[in-house]
Fold this protein.
Amino acid sequence: MSAYSITEPSRRQKWIAGTLVILYALITMAPLAWIFLTGFKSPPDSISYPPKVVFTPTLEGYVNLFTTRSRQTREYLDSLGPARTWYEEIVRKREMVIAGPSKFGERFKNSVIIGFGSTFLSVFLGTLAAYGFSRFKVPLKDDLMFFILSTRMMPPIAVAIPIFLMYRSLGLSDTHLGMILLYTAVNISLAVWLLKGFIDEIPIEYEEAALIDGYTRLQAFYKVVLPQAATGIASTAIFCLIFAWNEYAFALLLTSGTAQTAPPFIPTIIGEGGLDWPAVAAGATLFLLPVLVFTILLRKHLLRGITFGAVRK
Amino acid sequence: MAEIVIRNLRKEFGSFVAVRESSFTIGDGEFFMLLGPSGCGKTTTLRMIAGLELPTAGDILLDGENVAQVPASRRDIAFVFQMFALYPHMNVRQNLAYPLKNQGMARADIRRRVDEVARILGIVSILDSGVGRLSGGDRQRVALGRAIVREPKAFLMDEPLGALDAEFREHMAEELRALHNRMNATTVYVTHDQLEAMQMGDKIVVMNHGVVEQFGTPQEIYDHPATMFVADFIGSPPMNFLRFTGTFERGATSVHLSGVDIAVPELRQEAAGREIALGVRPEHVRLSDGGAYRGCVDATEYLGTTQIVTLQCDNGTVKARIPASQHAIIGETVGLEFSTATLSLFDAGSGRALVTAANEGAFRG
């Protein structure tokens, strides 16, 4: 028996805590795992009842995701000769030929441009604004900060119709710029508030030291403040990216072609006789990757960002 | 290096006046102390000299040039912060090199200068360490190094020893003073610690409520305080005040309190029917049976070679510093004698010292 300690959890407490965490992880990860697995099922397997947990994996879903296909007669297929590539072979088994690439690649690219573009813009403007609010005497500072926060108090979708009409008359509908501006507008309040908190925590002496050392205010900002704020900037960027990346409603409403992002596109992947579930799951899996990678890259900062200010240094 | 002249300097923050019309001169090569309790305006004054705050009014002459409204980056002044403010994302060498990089100095020259400064401060071995893991003393040395590496016109230090523990502070104070003697650089040093100010300073300015109370050498300030605030702030325990109402002529050589005549330095001004405080430092009180002025021993504090005896007298409490070997028994009534030449007289209403033969000419503008 070890001595009783009020700060150090006992072995039993640790065991219970560990079990709870793993249980919670299993519950939340199950849908993701299901999507991941569905991506490797054949269309019949994906809709079989009872659902199949053991199945023969196939890349058919991924092939269908990236291609458009057309059904052909057996005679025609025979006349083509043997399939030249592995993906052609998969398609031929369903008595189809590849007609061309699908629009998924393009939609994915749109998501990248709009997601990262608006994240960059939000963080860039947010950092400058937060620095200004943090360091300078701004008239009506508290009111302005509240105004910025208040833009978040209403669900953005409440203004969907005005924005739709506005975008139509401004010619911003279905453009990259339009979507970047929209997501930036939604994210900027979060960015300003988060970053102001981070910058407030950076002792002003660092900048003053740089000013004394002969640097200008702007040099002090990007050589001393920015490296210090990296953690805050990184976690703010993750929050902004997650929002912009996953946003569905506005993307569905305002984009249809050139600027359509992946979220409204993926559910429209139709196979024969309904949704092509393996292709949808494959698209969803690929769609999850960038945010996952981005978050893993910045996870050290993110963790610190979430717990920021919880403990005084 | 440079002489710094402060003329009628004033700083307001909104309706709050942090510094009121302050004037003093910091001589070339002086180790100059800005002393006062917290909130007295000493740090604001220092920050105005640095250019981190711009004065509301008044002049700051740096080598004859008025820099009051010039930004910090163009003043060529170094500043040592209380929390050191070492750039946390750089190692020691980069911290030291940072002020030089901005001047466009060649890489080899920077390296040579940084190495030289590191040698002076004894921090060669930590040059490549990050600043996060340094001890307080090493941080202090790096902060000093970053200041001296540039060879600026003056060093400004804002309670640089405040973040160190007591034992180490003593050591750093000596190191700082030795460094100053070696470089002979004009240094302005802010502190609230009167011992530190006395120990290190060539000159001291004592501030209170944004006003310069007195400006002079440590001896002048200790021996001839210009105000009751200074007398009370400097010295531990502080100066005793015996309050009485008196009238005296110019040229008087004694004051009359509680039926006893006490000899004082010859007065060079008159005072009529005002409340007066007779100021006497604890070490200038002697306990003797022959003393006509009596007090009752209230408490004693043993300090090794000396002891502090607290006495209750008709005109207030008096603390006396006497040899530890002398007996003082609590409850006993003893006679007090004061060394005449060291006594000060204050107008208790305004708090200002009355001019006597002892302090005449001791107060600077």
Notes: Chain A has a mean pLDDT of 88.
